[in-house]
Task: structure prediction
Amino acid sequence: MNEVMVKRNELLAEKVIEGLISRNMTGYYAKDKEEALKIALNIIPEKSVISMGGAMSVREIGLVDALKNGDYDFIDRDNYEDKRQAMLKAYDADFFLASANAITDDGVIVNIDGNANRVSAIAQGPKKVLFIVGINKVCFDIDSAMKRARNVAAPINAQRFGLSTPCSKTGTCMNCKSPDTICCQFLITRFSRHADRIHVILVNDNLGF
Ligand code: SF4
Result:
């Protein structure tokens, strides 16, 4: 990435972080994936109980591998035959790891969900929530954040999971009520009632969808 882009992204991240602070959340800027991993591991103490939704960005910075190989109690849904049990355990975790479908430049976080395990854990339950968010997810108002979630993130996720939704064929949202829709619940996180609960690492890289 050239210097001009880096400078612009640093300035944008500064603005997002100011917005997060004004909303009782904590923001960090990571210049690349390696730095994001270091910051995340500084935030999460060893022996913590950790759960997550299906967040590609968390995997992309190497955090899942680091937690599985370290001294952490990582709730790996893939190891649970009873997925509901894993989801219920997640609500009592020390940390829930997530990405965002979009974040506004003034710090509002937007997520959509089919099963709602992810958005419900973000909203309440786990003691802390740690978001890993690529700079590509920053939008300039709620409207554009919702459009990003429905026209970029959702169609890609629908294709990824082999779902039979209109967007998996057209690449954009058709506002469907398909049985397979992943747009069942929308969560707009505009303020955290609890200080020190929501932490966001903004990464100067394209992460996730
Ligand atoms: S509402 Fe339907 S078509 Fe639109 S993004 Fe969601 S799943 Fe796709």
